[in-house]
Amino acid sequence: MKKNKSKIYILIIMLISWLSLLFVGKENIKKYLPASIFMSSLVFAENILAEKIKWWTIPVKLVPNVNGILPFVLGSFLTGSIWILKLTYRNFYLYLIVNIVVDSLFTYPFYTLFRRLGVWRLIRLSQFQLSLLFFYKSLLMYAFQRYIVEPLRDRDNEKRPVTDIQ
Fold first, then answer.
1. Beta-carbon neighbour count of residue 38 at 10 Å?
2. Which end of the chain has the smaller Cβ count within 10 Å, N or C?
3. pLDDT per residue over 1-11, tens digit each?
């Protein structure tokens, strides 16, 4: 019964995450989705490695034989990354502060809740080490947006003809 409740909580988190994107705006989604997908892919790959080397485990799976992190990656992580970039991008210090706060909330109170619900638990990684891992990933996502996505968008915009009619 505990796993069924955990699955319901996970589905609710995913649904709320995706519904929140209605307030982000289409242009912001297009602008920040590449960096968010890049980081989500990295987090998914990281989780496969982390479970093999026993940093953590995610025993609750929404779908059998599908990695337990997938709902979090496709839900709160992907959408949260878009929101954080939308609200803080171009203000690096604000970006860092927001990431530290959000990561700390996830690492401490939310982790405690998820552990109690049986959703996931740390094994060979401390909560502080998990915080550092999140911090490094936030730096990587910002760099990806700044030095890869943005120059590609600028290059594409330069190639488009101006169609202003006066």
1. 17
2. C
3. 467 788 888 89
